[in-house]
Specification:
alpha+beta; Immunoglobulin-like; 11-stranded mixed sheet; 5-stranded mixed sheet; 16 helices; 18 strands; about 35% helix; about 20% strand; elongated
Length: about 600
Amino acid sequence: MSNVILINALEEIDSALTACLPDHPGMAWGWIEVLQAAGMWEKVGRLASRIVERIPSTAEYESRLQYACVMHTAVAIETMLVNGDAASARQLVTSITGESKVPKRLVRWHAARRLTVEALGDIPFTDRADRLQVAAARLRTVVSHQPTDHRRRTVEAYCRTLELLADLAHWDTATQAAEENADRWRQAAMRKAELAASDVVGTALAPLVEKIRTIDQLSVVDELRRSLIAVPLPVLIADSQHSVKPHYTTARPPRPPVGVCLLEMDGTPVSNLVLLEPEHIYDLRVTIHVSTWPDWAGTLEVAFNSPTKALELPVLRLRPTGITTTRTPVIVSDLGRCWLAGTQSSFADPLVCDVIAEFHGGNQRQLVRVAGWPQLRVRTFDPARDVLYGQLHTEGELITFFDRLYGQGIPDDEVKVFCRFFSALVAAAKRLYANRQFRGGGRMREAQFQHELEKILGADPRLGGRVQRKVLAGGVTDLIHDGIVAELKVERTTPATIAGAHKYIGQPAQYSVDADARLSILCILDWTKKNAPVGKPENYWGWLIPRMHGIQHPSHSSIVGILIINANLPRPSSWSGRQIDASTLNANASISGFQ
């Protein structure tokens, strides 16, 4: 039925409303569906107003009148959006009343539409991407029980477009935060838009999806958001308002086949984050258990949407090895090359790559819903966060300790060297405890401490033998590794503390300046007599920032990492019977330190 015919028939439609109201409102709402499918929103609004006017405000018709009022408001919201009055639509959608006796589906529809209008509005949300995702999920849930008709397909296509905008909102947020892999969100949105193009053909959503498929500028994101909010959605008419229910049911579309994906990197199953050595070639095996294999499909193509060209991932075309039927699960597997060029900066987020699987055969394609491990998460090895030394049980505390370097403006290479060297010193401290010379008794000289530590660090494979002494600033450093100086001291009289280390930090700070670095290490061997048991190693490291000559607030201050190694320890049994100061642990007591 053309729009011209409908316009000419409006008087006849009005007469039909008079005949069926107020006792048979289902026929009246049927005309609402016809007009909104034709995009005649102004006419829909006027028709909804007439329906409200012709239902009496008596107790007998109370529920029908409430339903008509809510429907009239819903239609008014869509009409405002079409006319570009998003502000009035947002105000109206948040003030709907009289829903107590209307069908729950309509109540849920209004709640979902409210989320959509708010998420697409001009108010600058920091979590706009999450709001768009939630709105799409709520809308999709509401229409999931609808028959598969034009209304449901329109809303589902709208939901997919909302999700595309959510990816672009993530892209905008990540770009503003200067994240290294921000462009992965744009790449994901472009690929999803390519897959969604066939679902929006002939609708008002088609131009938007086409723009997303080729988007390359952030300035377009707000334009797309404003365009989408002006696209109206068909108001759902609750089945209970129709006097005659259809005697048939519409079959649901077949669900896409499911593929359970398993990933292996160099023979090791991928369970979470994969750490890659840069410039190293890995074998990535993909195994997919497919629930069904279509008769027309020759291959299952598996690809990864890599967020950066530096990460090379395979495109695999998997073929079944035996005879398959549409009802028989099939397992296909193959491997390809994975390679990461260059390194990431310290504290960089992982590169997240979605697994995309699709059946191919002739001119046909069918997307497979990937379960199991639908994503591959990789990043380069980062000394500031990753475990270096096997049985070192302090990696969690070290990661927290190194996090303080994030955002200080220190070059990434310098941070990585410092973290590697400091972690090696923490691991070396554990080796010293096993050395009889450091258990206690006698006198410990700095030269002896330096000799033993240099021997342990020189054998550490992670340091590559690059631990030496060097002349800097007119003096000979104790130890230096790739430009990071470690000054060694032995404390024999006063128990070593982080705060008390200020009397030693000038030396490593001055050495570091001559080495063109801001970071340095002060390692103190506490050889004092112990009057209480020592604590875990993480209690004995910290940071000090020395004052600079002639500068009150330096822009590039020196930072010294302090490490205290407790030695000259008495036997554990010697504490038995000795009086030790202690405090009780109550419900409201602090356990961060002795009170």
